[in-house]
């Protein structure tokens, strides 16, 4: 076995160019997906306090932002809608004139090459803030065998089918179901195919954990649950084998891309998914991951650029092909310089 002093790993770390030559993981704008929150109005740019640099945008402002993303060579953006009207079943989600379909149409018209992803979930559209239809005695689909307040799985699939077709019709390239509803990928695939949207891609939030790291997002999207939490349908953070089973199911149901979310606290999941599946993997560096870096940097406790890049390299190294990140624009600028 060759050892010190024959081997001196430090030789290869001596200069920036040497380090470039032996770098094992790449990070470029190719790997970035940015995120946007869209709401009704004109000229609206409502800053999100917990997510510095991000704002809720009206469609005209979202188009401006989309142009900037394209100029920075970022290939894709994911959209979240904040509707004016919410109700028990989130009907605004499948209104063809709803905020997300409007934004999709405007962005695809202005910047056709930008890949537009629609986050497909009910929580932004429901008054109770849960990711589907809730079992209540006054609901038409009330099931007395299941507890009150329970998220009705199969009834929710009908909403996801309708809304996915509406968003595809508006021009979404990718539908990204994020509710952890069992059977959501199959339901959406059939619905899209039936309507002729055979090339609309499904990026499934396959292993999405019930995470405290979503805190700032729920401010941004105005979608915190009004009772209970999402632990009855999102995954329990300690589970790895179950995550692989979730991914396997979504692959079998026809997912084109599978996602792990959050990212940095779940690198082991990303790695295991990479080793077990051939499909492209997306990782979501969620709002809490972003805000923690921003907050610590604002205090002068860490170097923002360095920590953000290091985090994204770690997520890539674990095996993610693409990363949804609120740092996308900044990273694109840093990588340029
Ligand atoms: C909708 C959805 C959430 C996020 C993405 N899609 C919120 C949630 O599940 O509570 C979180 C994203 C983030 O924190 O950045 N279901």
What does it look like?
The protein is α/β, with parallel strands linked by helices and 337 residues long. The protein has a single domain (28-336), classed as Alpha-Beta Barrel (TIM Barrel). Helix content is 37%, strand content 17%. It contains 11 helices and 12 strands. It has helices at 16-21, 59-71, 99-110, 153-170, 184-194, 215-220, 241-253, 267-276, 287-298, 304-318, 328-336, and strands spanning 32-39, 45-47, 55-57, 76-82, 115-120, 133-134, 151-152, 174-177, 201-208, 257-261, 281-285, 322-325. The strands form 2 sheets. An 8-stranded parallel beta barrel has the order 1-4-5-8-9-10-11-12, surrounded by 9 helices. Strands 6-7 form a two-stranded antiparallel ribbon. α5 (184-194) links the parallel β8 and β9 (201-208). α8 runs parallel beside α10 (304-318). The radius of gyration is 21 Å and the shape is globular. The termini are far apart. The model has no long low-confidence stretch (mean pLDDT 97). Ligand PBG binds at residues 119, 121, 123, 131, 178-179, 214, 217-218, 230, 286-287.
> Approximately how much helix is present in the residues?
25-40%
Distance between the termini: 42 Å
Judging from the principal axes of the Cα atoms, what is the shape?
globular
What's the number of helices? 11
> Whole-number radius of gyration?
21 Å
Class from secondary-structure proportions: alpha/beta
Query: Which ligands, by name, code or SMILES, are bound?
Result: ligand PBG
The CATH homologous superfamily corresponds to: Aldolase class I
CATH architecture: Alpha-Beta Barrel
Please summarize the sheet with the most strands.
8 strands, parallel, barrel
Number of domains: 1
């Amino acid at each position: 076995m060759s050892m010190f002093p024959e081997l001196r790993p430090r030789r290869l770390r001596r200069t920036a160019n040497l380090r470039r030559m032996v770098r094992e993981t790449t990070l470029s704008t190719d790997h970035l997906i940015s995120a946007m929150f869209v709401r009704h109005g004109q000229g609206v740019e409502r800053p999100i306090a917990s997510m510095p640099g991000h704002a809720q945008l009206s469609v005209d402002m979202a188009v401006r932002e989309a142009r900037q993303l394209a100029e920075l060579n970022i290939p894709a953006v994911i959209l979240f809608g904040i509707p004016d009207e919410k109700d028990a079943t989130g009907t605004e989600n499948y209104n063809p004139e709803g905020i997300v379909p409007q934004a999709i149409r405007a962005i695809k018209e202005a910047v056709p090459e930008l890949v537009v992803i629609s986050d497909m979930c009910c929580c932004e559209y429901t008054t109770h803030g849960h990711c589907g239809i809730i079992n209540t005695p006054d609901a038409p689909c009330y099931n007395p065998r299941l507890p009150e307040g329970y998220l009705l799985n199969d009834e929710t699939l009908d909403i996801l089918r309708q809304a996915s077709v509406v968003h595809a019709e508006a021009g979404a390239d990718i539908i990204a179901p994020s509710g952890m509803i069992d059977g959501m990928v199959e339901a959406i695939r059939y619905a899209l195919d039936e309507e002729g949207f055979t090339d609309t891609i499904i990026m499934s939030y396959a292993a999405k954990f019930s995470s405290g790291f979503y805190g700032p997002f729920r401010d941004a999207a105005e979608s915190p649950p009004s009772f209970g939490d999402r632990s009855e349908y999102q995954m329990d953070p300690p589970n790895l084998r179950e995550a692989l089973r979730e991914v396997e199911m979504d692959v079998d149901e026809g997912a084109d891309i599978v996602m792990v979310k959050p990212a940095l606290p779940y690198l082991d999941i990303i790695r295991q998914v990479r080793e077990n599946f051939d499909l492209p993997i997306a990782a979501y560096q969620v709002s809490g991951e972003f805000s923690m870096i921003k907050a610590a940097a604002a205090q002068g406790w860490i170097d923002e650029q360095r920590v953000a890049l290091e985090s994204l390299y770690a997520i890539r190294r674990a095996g993610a092909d693409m990363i949804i990140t609120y740092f996308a624009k900044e990273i694109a600028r840093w990588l340029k310089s």
